[in-house]
Specification:
Strand order of the largest sheet: 3-4-5
Number of helices: 4
Radius of gyration: 29 Å
Strand content: 15-25%
Length: 177
């Protein structure tokens, strides 16, 4: 009978080697850190993606704003300011950019600007987005594990983007609103 127990102990130790408890403890200690790093990488990746979408939206608006129409007497902008704003808005909507409350972002006058100025190289058109909120998913929530009380708006970053291009039209004929 003692030989039978030795065989059973050998079978049990094959399934559960003595180091198994150490591995479990090490995993329990390191897993929260690994999950935090993974969540942070996802949060930052989404932040950079949204910044790129904003930059591309201003590029699309600027590309549309620099185009000209040749009338009989003058060369004038092909699009109005509101049409350029709508192009930028459509780009943001197509990429599902949200405001601070999680609703689709609707640009207002404080967030969108379309300006032009004359320089030595011609008319420069600037399309800019300001104070566009981005809500982090994981990183702001992680601080609460350490006793931090989150304040309203803590999880938001405000992004901006701006594109400047040379226009095909002259500043003496500015685009209509």
């Amino acid at each position: 009978m003692p030989e039978e127990r030795k065989v059973q102990n050998r079978k049990a130790s094959a399934w559960f080697p003595p180091e198994a408890g150490n591995v479990t403890l090490e995993l329990a200690l390191i897993l929260p850190l690994l999950l935090f790093i993974l969540g942070g990488a996802l949060d930052l990746g989404m932040l950079f993606w949204e910044k790129q979408v904003l930059t591309n939206a201003t590029r699309e608006g600027a590309r549309a704003a620099i185009k000209a129409v040749d009338d009989t007497n003058t060369v004038r902008p092909a699009l109005t300011q509101s049409q350029v704003r709508q192009i930028v808005q459509n780009y943001l909507t197509r990429h599902r950019i949200k405001d601070a409350s999680g609703q689709p972002l609707v640009l207002n006058d404080s967030q969108f600007s379309y300006t032009w100025e004359y320089s030595a190289s011609g008319t420069l058109v600037t399309v800019a987005l300001r104070q566009i909120p981005y809500r982090m998913m994981l990183l702001p929530n992680f601080r609460s594990f350490f006793g931090y009380t989150r304040q309203p708006g803590d999880q938001n970053f405000f992004l901006q983007a701006r594109t400047i291009m040379a226009a095909e039209w002259h500043v003496s004929v500015p685009p209509p609103p």
